[in-house]
Design a protein that fits this description.
It contains 28 helices and 18 strands. It is α+β, with helices and mostly antiparallel strands. It has six domains: about 150 residues; about 50 residues, no CATH class; about 120 residues, no CATH class; about 120 residues, no CATH class; about 90 residues, no CATH class; about 130 residues, Isoleucyl-tRNA Synthetase, Domain 1 (Orthogonal Bundle).
Length: about 750
């Protein structure tokens, strides 16, 4: 068996593109071989700052011989049909075809063509140029007069099969058997005949660490070693480690020093300056946990002086960056956050949703409302919300957008705001990913929830929801953040009520409501019909309307406020509020999907979440408690059997309701019972419902499930001993109503129809 070695050599492949390009080249090459009918053994793919490499072993010298069959017409087919078959099959005579028989269709012709395998060298010579020309890079370029596009100018193509060069040409660049090593320590070129030769030559003489994993481990080990020797500790940064792994072919780690005065800056600023601008690792003192006046740089050269000059040069560059940061820091601290916040009036959040200042007003109102259920001081929650976005106009956030919120927290403390307010400002964007911590302080919880809920409601109001894999405004992340904040802090919220209120005051809705009221004032009331499929919820309407009036102070229009004095808020507001309610229902379903994702990652069943959500519950904490109790219940024998009994009852009811064309309703009449199993089941249901309702009122879902579990025996006995479809119509109807009482009893804890099994 033979071996293929392919290397595409260029300059400066961006670190972020290397891993994907490595996989893409491997996949394209193996796919092309497979489509050519070539079997192969082990595949090794490598990537680095200047090269993509694939080595494939266990290859044959040629592809397998192939036998192709082409089915033709029947033997008694017209002459024209037979002539067409001969032309299509490449035959000169019908005698060259085989005759085969089919029991149903009779005798027919088959052309059998033997295609000999191709030399693998020829296959590779055609495949590689095709792959290179069609290779996708996020960004690519052309150079010279050629048409080839590559991430950087392609300089060499090493292609060796079975020890020999596979000859082909791409835009004037000929393939060969040579490569280059480190541009300083071991440039070469090196002539190669095998992958083993390739690895040995480059790693021993070329000063190239070929494997990404090898370079990553080398950097990590060296960094920890140089820090330990100085009594320091490396600040872990996996993202930066991945990036620098793609920057150096022969990584050499050096510990540098900086002016300790820069440590007066917030540590996030120092670390981000190192990371973003210079690709340095931060270092801390293990005794204090604070940043040390040092940094770790990964060089691509073994310096004769041990890296002293490199460290000094990088220190000068870092100092210049930190000098800039210090200027912004001092300048920003001298500007009150309230003054910064005034500038938000001129910056659009989203055209349809107003300015960032408009968003701040809405968030402040909501944060104040959320303060009580999360245990926060309402005044502090509102104060933090009003200042939370102020740092967006600061010089530091302009330089480091990643620090929005964080810098606001520092500026808040510098100007004397309470710790609670400063912490809320710093953390109100959290969590920004699945691994990010959620806010835990009450004021921070209120502001973070308010900010995310306002964003979600706003984009739902203007119908810019995520579609498919597209989510340009990170709304899925925001919703998952809300779910995590609520659940991980045990926050008890009626989410739908909040959504109703928020949709009611959104700019498009506010505008619509008051334009409607203007027309009403001028032209009088008119008849209103609900959208098809919706029922008017009087309690929901009244609740939202009352909240709406308390929130109007956050609407910046004196004219609008006058309408509150001129008109009674009765059913004339229903058209616009119904639109708000429909959007709130849709967004709640979106939260349900995010909750499923969150719980599924923790091993929960999505059908149980559906079953609980179907009850109309919008308290996420209660939903999770119900799901957990339901899951535990269904794991028991009683639970599994009761589910089976429910489904049996539901199937009977479904069939009968379909046959009768009407839902089975009404109370069970005990006087019509003829069998002990009926009486026992009726009594068991009444007892179980009473106990379950009491347990549900106390939010003791385990006890509620235990109460319903007592139905297992009576349900089983009923189905074993009672004929539901009795000949007597009254008896039949009463027994069907008894089945509906089973369904109603279990529906107190979940919609069992949505549970699989």
């Amino acid at each position: 068996m033979a071996e293929l070695l392919l290397e595409l050599f260029c300059e400066e492949i961006p670190a972020r593109m290397q891993a994907k390009a490595e996989g893409d080249l491997r996949d394209a090459l193996t796919k092309g071989l497979a489509e050519a009918g070539v079997e192969y053994g082990d595949v090794v793919a490598l990537s680095g700052p200047r090269r993509l490499t694939v080595a494939i072993s266990g290859l044959p010298e040629k592809s397998a011989d192939v036998s192709e069959e082409k089915k033709g017409p029947k033997v008694d087919a017209p002459e024209k049909a037979i002539e067409g078959f001969l032309r299509g099959a490449g035959l000169t005579s019908i005698d060259q075809a085989e005759v085969r028989s089919d029991p149903k269709k009779g005798d027919f012709y088959v052309a059998v063509r033997e295609i000999p395998g191709r030399p693998l060298e020829d296959i590779i010579a055609g495949l590689v140029p095709e792959i290179v020309r069609g290779f996708h890079w996020p960004k690519s370029m052309r150079w010279g007069r050629g048409e080839l596009r590559w991430v950087r100018p392609l300089q060499r193509i090493l292609c060796v099969f079975d020890g020999k060069t596979v000859e082909f040409e791409i835009d004037g660049l000929k393939s060969g058997s040579e490569t280059e090593g480190h541009r300083v320590h071991g440039r070469g070129p090196f002539k190669l005949t095998s992958f083993a030769d390739y690895k040995e030559m480059l790693q021993e003489k070329g000063f190239v660490a070929l494997s990404r994993e090898d370079r990553r481990l080398l950097i990590e080990e060296q960094a920890q070693m140089v820090c330990a020797q100085a009594g320091l500790e490396l600040v872990e940064d996996k993202g930066l480690l991945d990036e620098v792994t793609g920057l150096a072919e022969w990584p050499v780690v050096i510990l540098g020093e900086m002016d300790p005065a820069f440590l007066s800056l917030p540590p996030e600023v120092v670390q981000l300056s190192m990371r973003t601008h210079q690709k340095y690792f931060a270092v801390r003192d293990p005794k204090t946990g604070e940043l040390a006046p040092n940094f770790v740089v990964v060089a691509n050269i073994e310096a004769s002086d041990g890296g002293k000059a490199i460290a000094a040069g990088n220190a000068r560059v870092l100092s210049a960056r930190l000098d800039d940061a210090r200027f912004f820091w001092e300048q920003d601290k001298a500007t009150p956050l309230e003054k910064m916040a005034d500038k938000l009036k001129t910056i659009d959040f989203k055209k349809e949703l107003g300015t960032i200042a408009d968003k701040v007003e809405r968030v402040a109102a909501l944060a104040r409302e959320l303060a009580e259920p999360v245990g926060a001081d309402p005044d502090m929650a509102e104060r933090a919300a009003r200042l939370a976005k102020a740092d967006l106009v600061s010089g530091m956030v302009g330089e480091f957008p990643e620090l929005q919120g964080v810098m606001g927290g520092y500026y808040a403390r510098a100007q004397g705001e309470t710790d609670a307010v400063a912490t809320a400002i710093a953390g109100h964007y959290k969590p920004q990913g699945p691994s990010d911590a959620v806010p835990t302080e009450p004021v921070a919880i209120a502001v973070a929830l308010a900010d995310k809920l306002d964003t979600l409601v706003g984009f739902w109001a203007i119908d810019e929801k995520p579609t498919g894999s597209k989510d340009p405004f990170a709304l899925r992340r925001a919703a998952l953040g809300v779910v995590r904040i609520i659940l991980e802090n045990g926050v008890r919220l009626k989410l739908l009520e909040i959504l109703d209120e928020e949709f009611a005051i959104m700019p498009p809705s506010v505008h619509g409501i008051f334009e409607y009221l203007r027309a009403l004032y001028e032209n009088g009331p008119f008849e209103y019909e609900l959208p098809e499929g919706r029922e008017f919820d009087e309690a929901r309407f009244a609740r939202t309307l009352a909240k709406f009036q308390t929130r109007v102070r956050f609407v910046n229009s004196s004219e609008i406020k006058q309408f509150f004095e001129w008109h009674a808020f009765d059913r004339n507001m229903r058209p616009e509020l119904e639109l708000a309610f429909s959007r709130a229902d849709d967004l709640l379903a979106f939260f349900a999907d995010r909750l499923k994702q969150y719980l599924r990652d923790q091993g929960a069943r999505h059908d149980l979440i559906d079953a609980v959500f179907a009850l109309g519950e919008d308290d996420l904490v209660l939903i999770v408690k119900r799901v957990e109790a339901l899951a535990a219940f269904l794991e028991t024998e009683d639970g599994a059997n009761l589910l089976a009994g429910y489904k049996r009852a539901a199937n009977i009811l479904k069939a009968e309701e379909k046959k009768d064309g009407a839902a089975i309703e009404g109370d069970v009449d005990p006087s019509l019972f003829e069998q002990d199993e009926e009486r026992a089941l009726h009594t068991a249901i009444e007892t179980a419902v009473s106990r379950a309702d009491a347990a549900l009122e106390a939010e003791d879902f385990e006890a509620a499930m235990a109460a319903l579990a007592e139905l297992r025996g009576p349900v089983d006995a009923f189905f074993e001993g009672v004929q539901v479809n009795a000949e007597d119509e009254k008896l039949r109807a009463n027994r069907l109503r008894l089945l509906t009482s089973i369904r109603a009893a279990l529906s107190r804890v979940a919609d069992f129809s949505k549970i699989a099994g």
